[in-house]
Protein backbone atom coordinates (compact mmCIF):
# COMPACT_ATOMS: atom_id res chain seq x y z
CA UNK A 1 0.00 0.00 0.00
CA UNK A 2 1.45 3.34 -1.07
CA UNK A 3 0.71 6.42 1.00
CA UNK A 4 1.02 9.73 -0.86
CA UNK A 5 1.62 12.69 1.40
CA UNK A 6 0.32 16.10 0.43
CA UNK A 7 2.80 19.00 0.71
CA UNK A 8 1.91 21.66 3.32
CA UNK A 9 1.77 24.34 0.61
CA UNK A 10 -0.84 22.38 -1.34
CA UNK A 11 -2.88 21.87 1.82
CA UNK A 12 -2.80 25.61 2.53
CA UNK A 13 -3.88 26.49 -1.01
CA UNK A 14 -6.64 23.92 -0.86
CA UNK A 15 -7.89 25.28 2.46
CA UNK A 16 -7.82 28.87 1.15
CA UNK A 17 -9.72 27.87 -1.98
CA UNK A 18 -12.30 26.06 0.10
CA UNK A 19 -12.60 29.03 2.45
CA UNK A 20 -12.99 31.44 -0.47
CA UNK A 21 -15.58 29.21 -2.10
CA UNK A 22 -17.42 28.95 1.19
CA UNK A 23 -17.38 32.74 1.68
CA UNK A 24 -18.64 33.37 -1.84
CA UNK A 25 -21.35 30.79 -1.42
CA UNK A 26 -22.45 32.32 1.88
CA UNK A 27 -22.59 35.79 0.29
CA UNK A 28 -24.64 34.50 -2.64
CA UNK A 29 -27.09 32.72 -0.38
CA UNK A 30 -27.51 35.82 1.80
CA UNK A 31 -30.55 37.90 0.96
CA UNK A 32 -29.62 40.96 -1.10
CA UNK A 33 -31.57 43.32 1.19
CA UNK A 34 -29.32 42.33 4.09
CA UNK A 35 -26.17 42.91 2.02
CA UNK A 36 -27.47 46.23 0.75
CA UNK A 37 -28.72 47.60 4.07
CA UNK A 38 -26.12 46.31 6.53
CA UNK A 39 -22.95 46.12 4.42
CA UNK A 40 -22.91 48.13 1.20
CA UNK A 41 -24.45 51.29 2.65
CA UNK A 42 -21.53 51.49 5.10
CA UNK A 43 -18.80 51.40 2.45
CA UNK A 44 -16.96 54.35 0.93
CA UNK A 45 -16.57 54.75 -2.82
CA UNK A 46 -13.19 53.02 -3.12
CA UNK A 47 -14.30 50.00 -1.06
CA UNK A 48 -17.60 49.81 -2.92
CA UNK A 49 -15.79 49.76 -6.28
CA UNK A 50 -13.42 47.04 -5.02
CA UNK A 51 -16.32 44.97 -3.72
CA UNK A 52 -18.02 45.19 -7.12
CA UNK A 53 -15.02 43.46 -8.74
CA UNK A 54 -15.17 40.34 -6.54
CA UNK A 55 -18.05 38.53 -8.21
CA UNK A 56 -20.97 39.16 -10.54
CA UNK A 57 -23.51 38.85 -7.72
CA UNK A 58 -21.89 41.66 -5.70
CA UNK A 59 -21.31 43.71 -8.83
CA UNK A 60 -25.04 43.78 -9.54
CA UNK A 61 -25.65 45.01 -6.00
CA UNK A 62 -22.80 47.54 -5.92
CA UNK A 63 -23.85 49.39 -9.08
CA UNK A 64 -27.18 50.31 -7.49
CA UNK A 65 -27.56 54.06 -8.10
CA UNK A 66 -28.99 54.71 -4.64
CA UNK A 67 -25.63 53.74 -3.11
CA UNK A 68 -23.65 56.06 -5.38
CA UNK A 69 -26.20 58.86 -5.01
CA UNK A 70 -25.74 58.68 -1.24
CA UNK A 71 -21.94 58.82 -1.62
CA UNK A 72 -22.13 61.73 -4.08
CA UNK A 73 -24.48 63.84 -1.97
CA UNK A 74 -22.43 63.12 1.16
CA UNK A 75 -19.26 64.21 -0.66
CA UNK A 76 -20.87 67.19 -2.43
CA UNK A 77 -24.07 68.44 -0.71
CA UNK A 78 -24.86 70.68 -3.71
CA UNK A 79 -25.80 67.56 -5.72
CA UNK A 80 -28.98 67.22 -3.67
CA UNK A 81 -30.44 69.81 -6.06
CA UNK A 82 -33.38 68.12 -7.92
CA UNK A 83 -32.47 69.55 -11.33
CA UNK A 84 -28.90 68.34 -11.01
CA UNK A 85 -30.09 64.89 -9.89
CA UNK A 86 -32.28 64.65 -12.98
CA UNK A 87 -29.35 65.54 -15.26
CA UNK A 88 -27.09 63.00 -13.55
CA UNK A 89 -29.76 60.34 -14.01
CA UNK A 90 -29.21 60.65 -17.79
CA UNK A 91 -25.50 59.73 -17.48
CA UNK A 92 -24.51 56.20 -18.62
CA UNK A 93 -23.93 55.00 -15.04
CA UNK A 94 -25.72 57.89 -13.37
CA UNK A 95 -24.11 58.94 -10.05
CA UNK A 96 -21.32 56.39 -10.43
CA UNK A 97 -20.29 58.10 -13.69
CA UNK A 98 -20.27 61.50 -12.05
CA UNK A 99 -18.21 60.29 -9.09
CA UNK A 100 -15.56 58.71 -11.34
CA UNK A 101 -15.37 61.99 -13.32
CA UNK A 102 -15.41 64.48 -10.45
CA UNK A 103 -13.65 62.87 -7.51
CA UNK A 104 -10.07 62.38 -8.80
CA UNK A 105 -8.00 65.38 -9.87
CA UNK A 106 -8.28 66.42 -13.51
CA UNK A 107 -5.14 65.77 -15.62
CA UNK A 108 -5.43 67.15 -19.15
CA UNK A 109 -2.09 68.41 -20.44
CA UNK A 110 -2.13 67.27 -24.08
CA UNK A 111 -3.84 69.32 -26.79
CA UNK A 112 -3.79 66.47 -29.31
CA UNK A 113 -6.60 63.95 -29.49
CA UNK A 114 -7.58 61.70 -32.36
CA UNK A 115 -11.13 61.51 -31.14
CA UNK A 116 -13.54 64.20 -32.38
CA UNK A 117 -15.13 66.30 -29.66
CA UNK A 118 -18.86 66.73 -29.24
CA UNK A 119 -20.65 69.99 -30.14
CA UNK A 120 -20.32 72.66 -27.40
CA UNK A 121 -23.07 72.38 -24.77
CA UNK A 122 -25.87 74.92 -24.68
CA UNK A 123 -25.39 75.28 -20.93
CA UNK A 124 -22.98 74.28 -18.16
CA UNK A 125 -24.01 73.35 -14.64
CA UNK A 126 -21.78 74.45 -11.74
CA UNK A 127 -22.10 72.58 -8.44
CA UNK A 128 -20.03 74.40 -5.81
CA UNK A 129 -19.30 73.36 -2.22
CA UNK A 130 -17.11 75.09 0.36
CA UNK A 131 -15.92 73.14 3.40
CA UNK A 132 -14.34 74.29 6.64
CA UNK A 133 -12.55 71.60 8.65
CA UNK A 134 -14.33 68.98 6.54
CA UNK A 135 -17.82 70.34 7.21
CA UNK A 136 -19.89 72.06 4.48
CA UNK A 137 -20.49 75.77 5.03
CA UNK A 138 -21.86 76.67 1.60
CA UNK A 139 -23.42 74.81 -1.34
CA UNK A 140 -24.89 76.24 -4.52
CA UNK A 141 -25.85 75.13 -8.05
CA UNK A 142 -25.69 77.61 -10.93
CA UNK A 143 -26.77 77.10 -14.55
CA UNK A 144 -24.87 79.11 -17.17
CA UNK A 145 -26.16 79.54 -20.72
CA UNK A 146 -23.29 79.35 -23.18
CA UNK A 147 -25.07 80.45 -26.38
CA UNK A 148 -25.63 84.13 -25.59
CA UNK A 149 -23.44 86.62 -27.44
CA UNK A 150 -22.66 88.40 -24.18
CA UNK A 151 -21.17 85.16 -22.81
CA UNK A 152 -19.33 84.10 -25.97
CA UNK A 153 -17.62 87.44 -26.64
CA UNK A 154 -16.78 88.32 -23.01
CA UNK A 155 -14.11 86.74 -20.81
CA UNK A 156 -15.26 83.48 -19.24
CA UNK A 157 -16.74 84.43 -15.87
CA UNK A 158 -19.10 82.38 -13.72
CA UNK A 159 -20.27 84.03 -10.51
CA UNK A 160 -21.99 81.87 -7.91
CA UNK A 161 -23.26 84.44 -5.41
CA UNK A 162 -25.90 87.07 -5.98
CA UNK A 163 -24.92 90.77 -5.85
CA UNK A 164 -24.44 92.00 -2.27
CA UNK A 165 -24.91 88.47 -0.92
CA UNK A 166 -22.80 87.55 2.12
CA UNK A 167 -22.23 84.00 3.34
CA UNK A 168 -21.20 83.67 7.01
CA UNK A 169 -18.47 81.19 7.95
CA UNK A 170 -17.22 79.81 11.30
CA UNK A 171 -13.80 81.37 10.63
CA UNK A 172 -12.79 84.15 13.02
CA UNK A 173 -11.21 87.22 11.47
CA UNK A 174 -7.93 87.70 13.38
CA UNK A 175 -5.63 90.68 13.20
CA UNK A 176 -2.46 88.78 12.29
CA UNK A 177 -2.43 88.20 8.53
CA UNK A 178 0.08 85.35 8.58
CA UNK A 179 -1.92 83.40 11.16
CA UNK A 180 -5.20 83.89 9.26
CA UNK A 181 -3.69 82.92 5.89
CA UNK A 182 -2.13 79.74 7.26
CA UNK A 183 -5.37 78.79 9.01
CA UNK A 184 -7.36 79.17 5.79
CA UNK A 185 -4.80 77.20 3.76
CA UNK A 186 -5.03 74.29 6.18
CA UNK A 187 -8.77 74.21 6.90
CA UNK A 188 -10.68 75.56 3.90
CA UNK A 189 -11.56 73.36 0.90
CA UNK A 190 -13.59 74.03 -2.23
CA UNK A 191 -15.11 71.79 -4.88
CA UNK A 192 -16.34 73.17 -8.20
CA UNK A 193 -17.90 70.48 -10.40
CA UNK A 194 -18.75 71.48 -13.96
CA UNK A 195 -21.40 69.30 -15.58
CA UNK A 196 -22.02 69.04 -19.33
CA UNK A 197 -25.67 67.92 -19.72
CA UNK A 198 -25.19 67.31 -23.46
CA UNK A 199 -21.99 65.28 -23.37
CA UNK A 200 -22.95 63.50 -20.10
CA UNK A 201 -19.55 64.29 -18.58
CA UNK A 202 -18.27 66.29 -15.64
CA UNK A 203 -15.01 67.43 -14.06
CA UNK A 204 -13.84 69.06 -10.85
CA UNK A 205 -11.95 72.22 -11.81
CA UNK A 206 -10.86 73.09 -8.28
CA UNK A 207 -7.59 72.19 -6.61
CA UNK A 208 -9.70 71.50 -3.49
CA UNK A 209 -7.03 73.02 -1.23
CA UNK A 210 -6.02 76.68 -1.75
CA UNK A 211 -2.98 77.30 -3.94
CA UNK A 212 -2.68 80.86 -2.63
CA UNK A 213 -4.21 82.99 0.13
CA UNK A 214 -3.53 86.72 -0.02
CA UNK A 215 -4.81 90.16 0.87
CA UNK A 216 -6.09 92.44 -1.88
CA UNK A 217 -3.70 95.37 -2.12
CA UNK A 218 -6.48 97.99 -2.17
CA UNK A 219 -9.59 96.66 -0.39
CA UNK A 220 -7.64 94.45 2.06
CA UNK A 221 -10.19 91.68 1.47
CA UNK A 222 -8.93 88.12 1.82
CA UNK A 223 -8.64 86.32 -1.55
CA UNK A 224 -8.42 82.51 -1.58
CA UNK A 225 -7.39 80.99 -4.90
CA UNK A 226 -7.98 77.44 -6.17
CA UNK A 227 -6.53 76.54 -9.58
CA UNK A 228 -6.21 73.70 -12.09
CA UNK A 229 -3.94 73.81 -15.16
CA UNK A 230 -5.18 72.14 -18.34
CA UNK A 231 -4.53 71.94 -22.06
CA UNK A 232 -6.18 74.44 -24.39
CA UNK A 233 -6.00 75.24 -28.09
CA UNK A 234 -2.68 74.28 -29.77
CA UNK A 235 -0.28 76.88 -31.22
CA UNK A 236 -2.02 79.77 -29.50
CA UNK A 237 -1.70 81.68 -26.23
CA UNK A 238 -4.41 79.31 -24.95
CA UNK A 239 -2.25 76.23 -25.61
CA UNK A 240 -2.13 75.88 -21.84
CA UNK A 241 -4.67 77.56 -19.58
CA UNK A 242 -5.41 77.87 -15.92
CA UNK A 243 -8.93 77.50 -14.55
CA UNK A 244 -8.97 79.63 -11.41
CA UNK A 245 -11.60 79.90 -8.70
CA UNK A 246 -11.38 82.95 -6.45
CA UNK A 247 -13.17 83.20 -3.11
CA UNK A 248 -13.24 86.74 -1.74
CA UNK A 249 -13.90 87.19 1.98
CA UNK A 250 -14.45 90.24 4.13
CA UNK A 251 -15.02 90.90 7.81
CA UNK A 252 -14.01 92.82 10.90
CA UNK A 253 -11.33 91.83 13.36
CA UNK A 254 -12.85 89.66 16.09
CA UNK A 255 -15.95 88.87 14.05
CA UNK A 256 -16.82 86.20 11.51
CA UNK A 257 -15.29 85.97 8.07
CA UNK A 258 -17.95 86.39 5.37
CA UNK A 259 -17.74 85.14 1.77
CA UNK A 260 -18.91 87.82 -0.66
CA UNK A 261 -17.62 86.53 -4.02
CA UNK A 262 -17.09 83.07 -5.52
CA UNK A 263 -16.21 83.16 -9.20
CA UNK A 264 -14.46 81.14 -11.89
CA UNK A 265 -12.24 82.59 -14.62
CA UNK A 266 -9.74 81.17 -17.12
CA UNK A 267 -6.30 82.63 -17.90
CA UNK A 268 -4.05 81.99 -20.90
CA UNK A 269 -0.24 81.74 -20.94
CA UNK A 270 0.15 85.52 -21.09
CA UNK A 271 -2.14 86.21 -18.16
CA UNK A 272 -5.04 87.32 -20.35
CA UNK A 273 -8.62 86.24 -19.79
CA UNK A 274 -9.96 83.51 -22.07
CA UNK A 275 -13.27 84.29 -23.79
CA UNK A 276 -16.43 82.39 -23.01
CA UNK A 277 -16.47 80.85 -26.50
CA UNK A 278 -12.94 79.45 -26.20
CA UNK A 279 -13.34 78.58 -22.54
CA UNK A 280 -16.38 76.35 -23.07
CA UNK A 281 -14.59 74.39 -25.81
CA UNK A 282 -11.51 73.94 -23.61
CA UNK A 283 -13.59 72.78 -20.65
CA UNK A 284 -15.58 70.40 -22.82
CA UNK A 285 -12.39 68.78 -24.18
CA UNK A 286 -11.00 68.49 -20.66
CA UNK A 287 -14.15 66.68 -19.52
CA UNK A 288 -14.07 64.29 -22.49
CA UNK A 289 -10.36 63.58 -22.90
CA UNK A 290 -8.79 64.49 -19.58
CA UNK A 291 -7.49 61.76 -17.27
CA UNK A 292 -8.48 61.59 -13.64
CA UNK A 293 -5.76 60.81 -11.13
CA UNK A 294 -5.36 60.98 -7.40
CA UNK A 295 -3.14 63.86 -6.35
CA UNK A 296 -0.13 62.43 -4.53
CA UNK A 297 0.86 65.44 -2.45
CA UNK A 298 -0.96 68.45 -1.05
CA UNK A 299 1.57 70.80 -2.64
CA UNK A 300 1.34 69.32 -6.13
CA UNK A 301 -1.42 71.67 -7.27
CA UNK A 302 0.43 74.63 -5.71
CA UNK A 303 3.56 73.72 -7.67
CA UNK A 304 1.57 73.64 -10.93
CA UNK A 305 0.06 77.02 -10.06
CA UNK A 306 3.50 78.50 -9.37
CA UNK A 307 4.90 77.06 -12.62
CA UNK A 308 2.03 78.59 -14.60
CA UNK A 309 2.59 81.99 -12.97
CA UNK A 310 6.30 81.68 -13.78
CA UNK A 311 5.46 80.95 -17.41
CA UNK A 312 3.21 84.04 -17.52
CA UNK A 313 6.02 86.21 -16.12
CA UNK A 314 8.56 84.84 -18.61
CA UNK A 315 6.26 85.42 -21.59
CA UNK A 316 5.44 88.95 -20.42
CA UNK A 317 9.11 89.79 -19.97
CA UNK A 318 9.89 88.36 -23.40
CA UNK A 319 7.07 90.38 -24.97
CA UNK A 320 8.19 93.59 -23.25
CA UNK A 321 11.78 92.96 -24.32
CA UNK A 322 10.69 92.52 -27.94
CA UNK A 323 8.56 95.66 -27.67
CA UNK A 324 11.52 97.67 -26.36
CA UNK A 325 13.69 96.38 -29.21
CA UNK A 326 11.03 97.36 -31.76
CA UNK A 327 10.69 100.79 -30.14
CA UNK A 328 14.47 101.24 -30.31
CA UNK A 329 14.57 100.28 -33.98
CA UNK A 330 11.64 102.61 -34.71
CA UNK A 331 13.41 105.52 -33.00
CA UNK A 332 16.61 104.88 -34.99
CA UNK A 333 14.66 104.68 -38.26
CA UNK A 334 12.72 107.84 -37.42
CA UNK A 335 15.96 109.67 -36.60
CA UNK A 336 17.57 108.56 -39.88
CA UNK A 337 14.48 109.62 -41.86
CA UNK A 338 14.47 112.98 -40.09
CA UNK A 339 18.16 113.56 -40.91
CA UNK A 340 17.57 112.54 -44.52
CA UNK A 341 14.62 114.93 -44.88
CA UNK A 342 16.67 117.73 -43.37
CA UNK A 343 19.47 116.98 -45.82
CA UNK A 344 17.04 117.06 -48.75
CA UNK A 345 15.59 120.33 -47.52
CA UNK A 346 19.07 121.87 -47.53
CA UNK A 347 19.47 122.45 -43.82
TrEMBL record:
Chain ranges of the F-box domain: 37-73
Matches recorded under Pfam families: F-box-like (PF12937)
SUPFAM superfamilies reported for this sequence: F-box domain (SSF81383)
Transmembrane intervals: 328-346
InterPro entries: AT3G44326-like, F-box-like_dom_sf, F-box_dom
Superkingdom, taxonomy of origin: Eukaryota
Entry keyword set: Membrane, Transmembrane, Transmembrane helix
The keyword Transmembrane helix is assigned to this record: yes
Protein name, UniProt field: F-box domain-containing protein
